[in-house]
């Protein structure tokens, strides 16, 4: 009994220390939101993953994932389930892929068909599930009166690229083909996702634009998306790579877990030594750096890479959508991009928005000067995240 109480005290003190010692960058709208998300939830999970792997208790990715999800589940338990009122939520399969479908009861009874939205959660292709974003997807379904399909794609490192992409494509196609079963208007289906889910949403949009015989996606809405792995020294990586909310170190780990599950290449990637001098002057480098002069166009097949498993994949738009050629961007559906200042991924999103605009795609870009990655998760608790959610919903109301 005494031992138990002592253990609880130690644990609470440790968490409090994490919370209080989290360096919060100046300029963040709600510092306690940052300290809670980053200091407690994220860093304890990541550190336990590293310590656990060191003591051979499991792999870093898997322990990180388990602890992170345990934290998020505590949050869900505390919330209760009242936020799901007015929705029918069903866990099912679309073409062999696990999905959770949210149907507003009002739209199910209505004579007119509802719009639909495929939602792909983030978490570096490694952590998080449809549960992590359950309050968010439920909120979006209710506010839009839309049927939302949240995709529970298979994650890495158990399933390397392209499994998450393939699952996302399969689920999206199934929804487009079977919209009527959900009383959904197949011409009013969009796709959205945050972080790694934004990567998958963008990749699916590019892939489906080339498919014949399918209804077109009405819009893509990308929330602080991850879009490129050839340049880890963009201004946002340089300015914010040290932030614990999503450090450069962790983002590079996520990319490697997705690419080949070999973190021994971390330092090489961080120094941009995974690309050749030729690639650094090519159009692909130019996609990340619009100021680049003297771009020397190259053919993918002719490029040399260092000896790293699967490395040529970094130019595959299914893996890194910013690597799509201009011709592939033309004709994409109207696009929404959300970026945050305190985010290594800011420039990924900014560059994609710019390139899409140049290719003639209608683009809405919301940038949050005081926002951080992944603050939208707290849309129901913190004002700045709530405002971002409202703007995102306003876009979808108009464009879905
Ligand atoms: C990375 O992109 C930035 C601009 O975003 C540019 O200044 C830098 O030279 C690029 N680095 C490499 C290695 O391509
Ligand atoms: C990156 O390449 C440069 C130049 O070849 C070299 O000096 C440096 O040690 C390399 N760094 C890493 C981490 O590979």
UniProtKB/TrEMBL annotation:
The keyword 4Fe-4S does not apply. GO terms for molecular function: carboxylic ester hydrolase activity. The active site is at residues 195, 343, 373. InterPro entries: AB_hydrolase_3, AB_hydrolase_fold, Arylacetamide_deacetylase, GDXG_lipolytic_enzyme, Lipase_GDXG_put_SER_AS. Residues 117-264, 313-376 form the Alpha/beta hydrolase fold-3 domain. Keywords: Hydrolase, Signal. GO terms for cellular component: membrane. Residues 1-17 form the signal peptide. Belongs to the 'GDXG' lipolytic enzyme family. This is Neutral cholesterol ester hydrolase 1-like. It comes from Branchiostoma floridae. The lineage of its organism: Eukaryota, Metazoa, Chordata, Cephalochordata, Leptocardii. The gene is LOC118426800.
């Amino acid at each position: 009994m005494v031992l138990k109480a002592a253990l609880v005290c130690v644990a609470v003190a440790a968490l409090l220390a994490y919370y209080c010692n989290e360096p919060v960058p100046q300029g963040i709208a709600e510092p306690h939101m940052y300290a809670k998300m980053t200091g407690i939830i994220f860093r304890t999970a990541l550190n336990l993953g590293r310590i656990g792997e060191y003591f051979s208790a499991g792999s870093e990715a898997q322990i990180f994932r388990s602890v992170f999800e345990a934290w998020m589940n505590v949050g869900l338990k505390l919330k209760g389930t009242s936020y799901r009122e007015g929705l029918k939520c069903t866990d099912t399969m679309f073409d062999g892929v696990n999905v959770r479908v949210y149907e507003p009861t009002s739209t199910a009874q209505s004579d007119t068909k509802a719009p639909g939205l495929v939602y792909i959660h983030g978490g570096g292709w490694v952590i998080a599930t449809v549960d992590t974003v359950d309050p968010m997807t439920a909120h979006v379904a209710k506010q839009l009166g839309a049927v939302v399909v949240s995709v529970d794609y298979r994650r890495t490192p158990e399933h390397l690229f392209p499994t998450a992409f393939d699952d996302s494509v399969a689920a999206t196609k199934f929804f487009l083909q079977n919209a009527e079963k959900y009383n959904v208007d197949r011409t009013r289906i969009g796709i959205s996702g945050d972080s790694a889910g934004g990567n998958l949403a963008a990749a699916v949009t590019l892939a489906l634009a080339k498919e014949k015989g399918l209804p077109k996606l009405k819009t893509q809405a990308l929330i602080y998306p991850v879009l490129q792995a050839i340049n880890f020294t963009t201004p946002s990586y340089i300015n914010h790579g040290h932030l614990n909310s999503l450090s450069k170190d962790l983002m590079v780990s996520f990319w490697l877990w997705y690419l080949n599950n070999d973190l021994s290449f971390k330092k090489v990637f961080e120094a941009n030594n995974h690309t050749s001098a030729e690639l650094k002057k090519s159009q692909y480098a130019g996609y990340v750096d619009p100021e680049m002069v003297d771009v020397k166009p190259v053919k993918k097949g002719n490029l040399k890479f260092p000896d790293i498993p699967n490395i040529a994949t970094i130019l595959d738009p299914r893996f890194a959508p910013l690597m799509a050629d201009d011709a592939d961007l033309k004709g994409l559906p109207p696009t929404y991009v959300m970026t945050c200042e305190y985010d290594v991924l800011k420039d990924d999103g900014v560059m994609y928005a710019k390139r899409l605009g140049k290719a003639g795609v209608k683009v809405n870009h919301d940038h949050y000067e005081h926002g951080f990655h992944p603050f939208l998760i707290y849309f129901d608790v913190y004002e700045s995240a709530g405002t971002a959610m409202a703007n995102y919903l306003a876009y979808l109301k108009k464009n879905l």
